[in-house]
Amino acid sequence: MNGGHFEAAVPIGATADSVWDALVNPAKLEQWFSEHADVSLVDRRYDFWGHYTPDVPSRDEGRHRVVDVVHGSVLSYEWRIRGLDTEVEIRLEEGDGETVVHLVHDNMPEPTEETTDLEGFWSLALSHGLRGLVELGTVGAGRFDFTLPSVFHDRTVVSVDVDAPVERVYHTLDGVETEWWVPEAVRHKVRRDPPREVSTPFVMEGAHESILTWTLEDSGGRTHVTLVHHGFGPGEKGNIRGAIGWTDQVNLMKFVAEVGPAWFDRHQRVRMTRWDGSAWR
After folding, report:
1. Mind listing the domains of the chain with CATH numbers?
2. By CB distance 3.0 to 4.6 Å, which of 122, 152, 241, 278 could disulfide with 117?
3. Residue 179: which H helix or E strand, with range?
């Protein structure tokens, strides 16, 4: 069985040294990427495992041999996942006041409805986890806990805590976010209960029209946001691919609400390409 090829380019507003430290310092890795990490580039060891890694590997299952390293700019390592021997290469390119993280994942397993979409995993980890940590010092934004119940037969549920008041989060959600994914033809179906809830239709090619319900709860000046994807058509159900994708989306909303349009501006320059060469973003 052979896997596919995946490439990503993610601009981050930080120096290459700061990004490199977040990639190779195990204490930093545990803040944006994995539950546990054990890294020694001298010993060719780049180990990560636990709740935030697809398939929740044990310590022994989370061992990864370093293939190549150029201090400060290049890191590649092996990652055996779902019976495939895959390889991840990360290269850093610094310039114009930012660092672009170039990632290639070779022989990556293709997703199914029952297994993690690794493209979505990398988007979440790099675009929000790594970027959030090195730009803002935000811990945990890019992690998805694969042991928590988020996928059910009739719904998918994800949540995030936002360091902003409910009114600002609602404005962000009802503006940037809603306009992004709701086609103009069905925008009349959007239901609003400001500043606590927004429900929108969700239309995806090949699937029945479903519903996204966003609920906002005040938490001492911060906001707890819960997104429920429900109202599936016949033969459809919640799945892990959707949970990863919606976690990516709620984290985008989190940072736009906290930082402002500047976060969204750089996010629009993220590029990800599937193994078959088609644009994923």
Report:
1. 4-145+268-273 (3.30.530.20), 154-237 (3.30.530.20)
2. 241
3. helix 178-181
